[in-house]
Amino acid sequence: MLPIMIEHVKVPPIKCQGIKTKLINFITTSIKWDGNGVWIEPFIGSGSVAFNVQPQKAILSDSNPHIIKFYQDIQNGTITPEIVKEYLTKQGVLLSKTDDTKESYYYEVRARFNDNPNSLDFLFLSRSCFNGMMRFNKKGGFNVPFCRKPNRFQKSLVTKIVNQIKWVKEIMEGKDWLFVVKDWKEVVQNAEPNDFLYLDPPYIGKNTDYFNQWSDQDADDLAMIAQLAPCGYALSMWAENSYRKNEYLLKWDGEMVTQDHFYHVGANIENRNSVSEALLIKNNYLYTGNMDDIPIRPRPEKKIVQNEIAGQLDLLDISISDEDDFLVRQL
Ligand SMILES: C[S@@+](CC[C@H](N)C(=O)[O-])C[C@H]1O[C@@H](n2cnc3c(N)ncnc32)[C@H](O)[C@@H]1O
C-alpha cells in the first residue's frame, strides 16, 4: 500500500486551512504500511490525504459535521456530479447578478446555510469565500467573507468542481470507508494493531473556531494517547519557520522527515514564507529504502469529455497545479 509515488495528485472539492495537497507525495513516499488494517484519519479536513492514498478500509472523521455530511452525501448518492453541476450553474448566475459588496448573493447563501446547513451550500461557500477558508463563529455559523468575485462560478470552474466530485465518488466506490463526526480521542482509542493513524491536527492557538479548537492541552493529550495506540502513526506538523522551532514535536517518539514548503497568506508576495513541514513517523513505519524502488501510481490518461453546459470540450484535469488551489496557512 505505502510507500507509493503518485504521479498525478488530485485536489478535493472543498478547501480548508492546512490542506495537504502540496505534501501528498512527501507523505505517501515516507510511510511504510502494508494496508491490511484500517487507515484512520481523525482530522480529515478537506480529505486530500485519504483521497490520494486511497486505502481499501478507512475511518475518516472530523469534529466538523459539515465536512462529514458533505462526504457522506457524495457516498450515499444524495449529491451527484449532475446535481452539483445544475446547482452551481444556477447559483453562479444568481451570484453574477449581484455585486461584490455586503449585498452580494454570497451573503444570502451564507445566511441560508447558517439557518439550514446543507452540503450544496457548503460547497458553494467553500469555493467562493475568501481564500477558501473554513471558519465558524461562536454560534457555529460560517463567517468567512466573500472572495469578491461575482463571476466566480464560470463554466470552467463549475466543470472543475464537478470533476472533483466525480473523482471522489469514483474512488469511494467498492471501498469500505466510514465518514463519521467524532472527536479524535474516540477514534484514536479504537485503533487496532494493523491500522495506521494519519494525524493532521490544527495548529495550536491558530485558526481556531467553533469546530476547530486546539489548545496546548489538546496537543499534549494527542501526543500521549496516540503514542499508546497499538498501530503505526504519522503526525503532520510544522517543524520550523523563520522564527522558531516547534517544541511539540519533542513530545513524540519516532523518526522525523521534513520538507520545506512554501505557503502564502493572501496575494502579497511579502506574505509568502517558507516553513519546514515535519512528518513524525512511529519507529519501523518510516520508509528507508531507495526512492527509485517506490512503486508509481501513474497519471491516468486524460479523458476528453463533452461539457454539456458550455458545449465545449474540457479536459478532466484536477491536478494540484490549478491556480484555484489556495494554500491558506497561518502560523
Ligand atoms: C489541519 S486540518 C486537516 C487538514 C487535512 N489533512 C487536509 O489535507 O485537508 C485539521 C482538522 O481537524 C479538525 N478538528 C479540530 N479539532 C478536532 C477534534 N477535537 N476532533 C476531530 N477533529 C478536529 C478540524 O475541523 C480540521 O478539519
Automatic annotation (TrEMBL):
InterPro entries: Ade_MeTrfase_dom_2, DNA_methylase_N6_adenine_CS, M_m6A_EcoRV, MeTrfase_D12, SAM-dependent_MTases_sf. The keyword S-adenosyl-L-methionine applies. The lineage of its organism: Bacteria, Bacillati, Bacillota, Bacilli, Lactobacillales. The keyword Mitochondrion does not apply. Belongs to the N(4)/N(6)-methyltransferase family. It catalyses: a 2'-deoxyadenosine in DNA + S-adenosyl-L-methionine = an N(6)-methyl-2'-deoxyadenosine in DNA + S-adenosyl-L-homocysteine + H(+). Its EC number is 2.1.1.72. PROSITE patterns: N6_MTASE. It comes from the Bacteria. Keywords: Methyltransferase, S-adenosyl-L-methionine, Transferase. Signal peptide: none annotated. This is Site-specific DNA-methyltransferase (adenine-specific).
